[in-house]
C-alpha cells in the first residue's frame, strides 16, 4: 500500500512558506503523493496554485487534486489547468473529482448546486475530450497546453452505492475518506467500489482513502479535534462536534494501526491529512512510515 500526505491547507497555522517546505519534504520522504483539496469560502490557499507550486519543487511524488469540484467550474478552464500541471509534473498527476458538499462554495463561484451529480458525469466526459485534444466547440483551437502523455487517472470521490454506480462508468477508481479510521468502514467502501466496477464490467478500481491525523506535536488530540470542528463547521456545530468526537488518530500507535487497517481493508493508497502545519507532525509521520518500510 502506498502512503501519501495532504498539504495541511485547512489548518489554522498554514503560512506563506508551508506549501513549498512541506512539498519538498514529502518528496524527499517515504511518501507516494502530495495532495491538496478545493475549498473556496474558507482560510485555505487555492488548490491549483498550491499543486502547481508542489509540482515545481518535487521530482518523484505524484501530484494529486483531492478533490476537484468539477460541477462548479467550466470544463475548458479545468482542462487548461490540468495541462499546465501536467507540464510541471509530467506523468505524475492524479485527479480526484467530485460534487463537493458546501453550498457556499458553489454560490461564491456563481455555479448552481442542483443536478450536480449529473453535471459531474457530463463534465468528466467533456474534460476527457478536451484533454484528448478535441476543441471545445466547432472552429475553435484545442485547449492548451497539450498533455505530455496519457490522460491522468481520474478517481471519483464516491462513497455510496448510487454514486459508485455512476462513477464506475467513467472513473479509474475512487478516492474516499474515513473520519474514524476504522477498518470496517474502509472495507465497506472498498467492497462497494469493487462491486460497482464489476457490475459495470470494468477493471478492478484503484482505491484511495484519506484520514485526519495529528502527530508529533503538543496535545495532538486537542489539535485534531479543533481542526475537525473548524473544518466541518459548515455542516452545523452539532454535526461538527459529533464528528470531532470520532477522531482518534493522534498517536504513533493509532497511526500505525490506521496504516495496517487500511492495507488490510484493500486500500491501494492511504493519504494522511494533517490537522496542523507544524513541521513536527510531518517529521513524525515520516519517521513512522520509514520504520514501517516506506510507501
From TrEMBL:
Pfam families: Bac_luciferase. The keyword Oxidoreductase applies. CDD domains: Tetrahydromethanopterin_reductase. InterPro entries: Bact_Lucif_Oxidored (IPR050766), Luciferase-like_dom (IPR011251), Luciferase-like_sf (IPR036661). It comes from the Bacteria. Residues 16-233 form the Luciferase-like domain. This is LLM class flavin-dependent oxidoreductase. Gene3D superfamilies: Luciferase-like domain (3.20.20.30). Keywords: Monooxygenase, Oxidoreductase. The keyword Oxidoreductase applies.
